[in-house]
Amino acid sequence: MGNIRKTDSKKRILKAFIEILNTDGFNKMTVSKITSLAHINRGTFYLNYIDKFDLLEEIEQEIFTKIKTIKIKTILLEKETIDIIFSDEKILAVISYLQSNAALITALINSDLKNSIQEQLANLLKNIFTENNANINNPKIAQPYASNIIFGSISTIFITWIKNNMQESPEELLNIINSYRKLTPIDIFS
After folding, report:
1. What keywords appear on the UniProt entry (predicted)?
2. In angstroms, rounded to a whole number, what is the distance separating the alpha carbons of residues 44 and 141?
């Protein structure tokens, strides 16, 4: 019975977190606002989290762990090239995960946490790439520029899609990402 109550409390806290993030942003969020909107007492909140930063950390950790898990499950089979690391199947899996958590992801991206989330996404892509033996130590463009160009750009495409209310289908977004990967900057605008 206790686990059911804890799960229900966490769901209500998350729902309140998303709503407050949408209206006030993270910096103006307080535990009092969360508990009031979630219709729980402060003690219930503190049974689950130390403070709003602990709540945010758990949310971010869950999101990025799930994305990394999606990538690793499919990467382990083959890992020789960037095309395998960033295959259509893997990208679509990440897009589907983001879509299935649209309310939370959109709230995070449209809030005062946007820069932090985008940086974490870029770092996650870099870490996945590095774990799969990609040569990031001797690229044709010096580091950290090479990593920022590749991983920052792909994460920016995801962020833009989220900020545009995920209007494109997963397949359309995949086409945008694949076009970016295949075209030079000059070709993109010609």
Report:
1. DNA-binding
2. 51
Residues 45 and 60 in one domain: no
In the chain, % helix, strand, coil (3-state, to 5) comes to: 75, 0, 25
Give me the number of domains the chain comprises. 2
| Domain housing 8 | 1-49
Entry pTM: 0.80
Spatial contact of 79 and 133, defined as CB atoms under 8 Å apart: yes
User: Could you give the 3-state DSSP secondary structure of residue 124?
Assistant: helix
What's the Rg (C-alpha) of the chain? 19
Q: Are residues 124 and 172 in the same domain?
A: yes
- Which tens digits make up the pLDDT trace of 19-66? 999 999 999 999 999 999 999 999 999 999 999 999 999 999 999 898
